[in-house]
Specification:
Layout lengths: L3 E7 L3 H12 L6 E7 L6 H7 L6 E5 L6 H8 L7 E6 L8 H13 L1
Parallel strand pairs: 1-2, 1-4, 2-3
Length: 111
């Protein structure tokens, strides 16, 4: 089981999704899994973007109907088996040390 579950939400912005996904795949902390949520049932681009990377830690969740931003973001708060979760929007990106610095902070808090 991974330490962190990342929820990456996208809606019709493949150019931004590529940047967000690259930033996730470039993390120095690698003990994570990601649910890539495509909130447009008719948009094939997220599947194509994901296929270019071949990383088994990232799985596509194809919504069968458009949920909208609030309902999509709320999916992240249902959690998972991992002790931590994070939300990465498709129009955002992380510096390579983002998850590692969060891990260092959580280690200090739990000591």
């Amino acid at each position: 089981m991974a330490t962190v579950r990342i929820f990456l939400i996208t809606y019709r912005r493949p150019h931004l999704l590529r940047r967000a996904l690259r930033s996730l795949l470039s993390q120095t902390f690698e003990d994570w899994v990601c649910e890539l949520h495509n909130d447009d049932p008719y948009d094939p681009e997220p599947r194509r973007v994901l296929a270019q990377h071949h990383d088994p830690r990232v799985t596509l969740v194809q919504h069968t109907q458009n949920l909208g931003p609030v309902a999509s973001f709320n999916l992240a708060y249902r959690g998972g088996l991992e002790p931590y979760l994070s939300l990465l929007e498709d129009d955002n990106w992380w510096e390579p040390e983002f998850l590692a610095s969060a891990d260092r902070k959580s280690t200090r808090l739990n000591s």
